[in-house]
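Sequence in, structure out.
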Amino acid sequence: MGGSSEMALHDHSKQDSPVRAKARVVLAELYHTESRMPCLFNPQQLRLSCQMDVGKLRPVGSSHPTKMYGSTGDWMFPLSLFFSQFAIWHFGFKYPDITTAIAWLSRFMQPQEVGISPGPMLVVVPNVMTKVGILESIDVGMTSFDADLKVRTAEVQLQLSELRQGFLGASEISSGGSDHDDYSLRTGVEKGFRLGSPGPSLNLSRSGGRRR
């Protein structure tokens, strides 16, 4: 995902706001989808990339190599996030704790215990795509502070790679927003994650990945 997204971390309002998108990009823990982070503003562009492994045989005397399909690589999608306490908030809104948001994202890089991999991230872009990804890298830049050295703005760069746990054939690719769904992804959504549910935007309940 290219571009930037400004994040609302504690959205207590149940009414529509002129500054808040009605359909929002959401990041969540796949196996504990109540722990999620919705965007206040959506990115202006999305960028994804994928490569296919192709083997080449070079017969003697041939004018060209013979190409053979090997496998399809993971979809890679970068995500740029912008956190700010200078946005226009409705009355009574609690300013987001940016360091808490950064800590929540950082948890996708760490295992819960020995032998357990970090949990995968569910990325939902309504009407565009739904993907499960592994966070491969995170780069944090804290760009302004208040007098008490509390972070006021920050930029976070994420690099995710798609996690597929089953075979995906060409006939399964559709033009809808969930091109690369698999069973585990749909199960995670059905466990309680709903874009319309108010719920807490940030819930640091314990979660972990599955053994690989």
